[in-house]
Amino acid sequence: MNYNQNNPPRQGGFGKKVKRVSDVAALGMSPPAQNYPQAPFDPTYNTNMNQNQPPFNENSYDPQGFESNMNFNQYNVSEEQASPMSIPSPFIPNKSQFGMMLQQPMVQGMAVEFGQQLASQGKDIVNKKIEKYVSVSELKYYFAVDTKYVLKKLLLIFFPFTHKDWTVKYDQEHPVQPRYEINAPDLYIPTMAYVTYVVLAGFVLGMQHKFSPEQIGIQASSALAYSIFELFIYAATKYLTNIQTRLGVYDLLSFSGYKYAIIIASILMSVIFKSFGYYLCLGYCSIALSFFMMRTLKVQILADPSIQHGYTQDTYGQPRHTGGAKRKRYFIFLIALMQPFLSWWLSYHLVPTKSIVESNF
Questions:
Q1: Over the stretch 286-330, which tens digit does the pLDDT of each residue have?
Q2: Among 132, 154, 294, 308, which one has the highest count of C-beta atoms within 10 angstroms of its own C-beta?
Q3: Quick one: which of 231, 272, 233 has its CA closest to 249?
Q4: What is the Cα–Cα distance from 253 to 228, expressed in whole angstroms?
Q5: 330-341 CB burial, b ≥16 within 10 A, e <16
Q6: What angle in degrees, to the nearest 10, is found between the helix axes of 213-241 and 188-207?
Q7: CA distances from 276 to 94, 206, 282 (A)
């Protein structure tokens, strides 16, 4: 230690002099690492390794050689078990884990919600496609019926002579639904009557030993074709005579479809009373249906509140000709007289020559 007397002594923690320590180990530090001699370089070290391996050939390079050169028999492991795809991974669940995952309430709720969203999107797409050709919202009005309305409407079709009020009630600008208004047209009765007519025609042909599977299709297609042809005649007449009415396509389809109800009644009478019962029932029902058509269409066409004396006002308040009352009456007679003719045309070939009840006994 070097001690200089000229320097004043430095005070320690408790008034003692600070001592210099030359021993590093006394301070708790590790001694410096010792340098060991390295091993001598062996030039044959790398040449002695992998002497049995063939030299590298670029043409015979196999990127999956680590699998083809591996001997699985020495480990008692098959190649399928040792393939990388069969190795279990925490990121690839197996079948049991996948089944347990699907049983979780959260996963099931997400699946149900996704299915509902997908179904709603598909429903919206279908509705948009259908709305281009058929107004579904407007079509729902004609099927808004109940059992009470159906019974009253059928009685009105077969017995219309005592009915007094033929006006259709309106809720602001829209007519009241058929279930609340017996004079409103509907499509439920024409649709069900059409289906019943096809089934009854097949039944009658079967009782006459004339039934074949093709007859059902023939009866259905022919009746549908005549209905379309009838609508075409009505539309062409309205266009050529320039008749402006509130009657749309669905209204005309509804009124023209009521004739299937009297066709069914006439065929049922022909089953028991042969042709006499058929023509008697068809004659009365035709008169009743024609009277029903004339009274209903008269209110729908002639008594239109927006039309007076064949004229109405346009957007500028000027009178506009909408077709005379005389032409409208002709149009009403056309619809009323075509119903008996088409009823006979669609049912006369189903009348048996003799009573079916007598022939079966």
A1: 999 999 999 999 888 876 544 444 444 444 444 444 447 888 889
A2: 294
A3: 231
A4: 9
A5: ebbeebbebbbe
A6: 140
A7: 78, 21, 10
**Distant-in-sequence, close-in-space partners of 11: CB < 8 Å, separation ≥ 6:** 17
Task: Name, in order, each residue with C-beta under 8 angstroms of 289's C-beta and a sequence gap of 6 or more.
Answer: 157, 258, 259, 262, 339, 340, 343
Residue 355, amino acid? S
Claim: this prediction has a pTM higher than 0.85: no
Tracing tokens 């590790």 back to the chain, one arrives at 30
